[in-house]
Automatic annotation (TrEMBL):
Annotated protein name in UniProt: Transposase
Lineage summary: Bacteria, Pseudomonadati, Pseudomonadota, Alphaproteobacteria, Hyphomicrobiales
Gene Ontology biological process terms, A to Z: menaquinone biosynthetic process; methylation
PROSITE patterns linked: SAM_MT_UBIE
Source organism of the structure: Mesorhizobium temperatum
Record carries keyword Cytoplasm: no
Segments forming domain Methyltransferase type: 46-142
Example of a GO MF term: S-adenosylmethionine-dependent methyltransferase activity
């Protein structure tokens, strides 16, 4: 198999994200978030920045009955969400739209969930005010964001390698995943939107990939990092990817056993009420 074929994966970025990164990463965080939020049967639940729907599906399975709505601005992610087999629980309604201007009336939902999305919104305060608006009085909010990149060693190793081999600033998108790492800032944002009883729990998941090289391969195929290398000619691209893989593998050697990669990933989980 040619080196080019070894890193390329067949399918759209959203399909690859669902196939590889959801099982490895977001399913773990979804289970934690939904466990903490504890949606009840017959409640109305909104999953903001739902992506391919892992949180919405987890909530629906837990509820048994009620209403679950997924909202995302990314048409590719929603297309994958709609294509997946229906699981247990209520049918999920998928809506395309912005978290900054949600297409729902006031006081529509009992629970709003937002997994690993708030840090990406161009106006976080507006998004939180919208979450507040669509909740019923005493409604619940449960959201998560990644903490400092230093507490996710694989992300730090990849970001450093991107800057080293693609130039300063190449890791900006990767580092932005951790751009709301300050728990005090997070608290102020949530409370400033009107929420009360705000609590923040910092927790860790152990993330597994078959190898460090596979982690890099998936990051460069199924996330926005793909754009960093997709326009290169094949020879240059293969050399750059090999160099990034080498650096990341070296940096994560202490997290590899028998070739398998397992590293900690830390996030802040916020619970609050309207």
């Amino acid at each position: 198999m040619a080196q080019q074929e070894q890193w390329q994966l067949e399918g759209s970025a959203a399909e690859l994200y669902e196939r590889y990164l959801v099982p490895a990463i977001t399913t773990l965080w979804a289970a934690d978030l939904v466990d903490r939020a504890a949606p009840l049967s017959d409640e109305r639940v909104l999953d903001v920045a739902c992506g391919t729907g892992v949180v919405a599906r987890s909530a629906a399975e837990r509820m048994g009955s009620g209403q679950v709505v997924g909202l995302d601005i990314n048409t590719g992610m929603l297309a994958v969400a709609r294509s997946l087999p229906r699981g247990a629980g209520p049918l999920i309604d998928w809506h395309e739209g912005s978290a900054l201007e949600m297409p729902f009336p006031d006081a529509t939902f009992d629970l709003v969930l937002c997994q690993l999305g708030l840090q990406f919104f161009p106006d976080r305060s507006s998004a939180l005010r919208e979450m507040f608006r669509v909740l019923v009085p005493n409604g619940r909010l449960a959201l998560s964001v990644f903490s400092a990149i230093e507490h996710t060693p694989a992300a730090k190793a990849l970001a450093d390698a991107l800057d080293r081999h693609l130039g300063p600033g190449a890791s900006a998108t990767k580092r932005s995943e951790h751009s709301l790492a300050d728990a005090d800032e997070l608290y102020r944002l949530v409370a400033g939107a009107g929420f009360r009883q705000v609590t923040i729990h910092t927790t860790t998941q152990n993330i597994r990939f078959p190898s460090s090289k596979e982690y890099v391969r998936l990051q460069l195929a199924a996330t926005p990092q793909a754009g960093l290398v997709s326009g290169m000619d094949a020879g240059h691209r293969d050399a750059v990817i090999a160099a990034i893989m080498g650096d990341v593998s070296s940096s994560l050697a202490i997290y590899s056993t028998g070739g398998e990669l397992m590293f900690p990933q830390e996030a802040h989980v916020v619970l609050a009420r309207k």
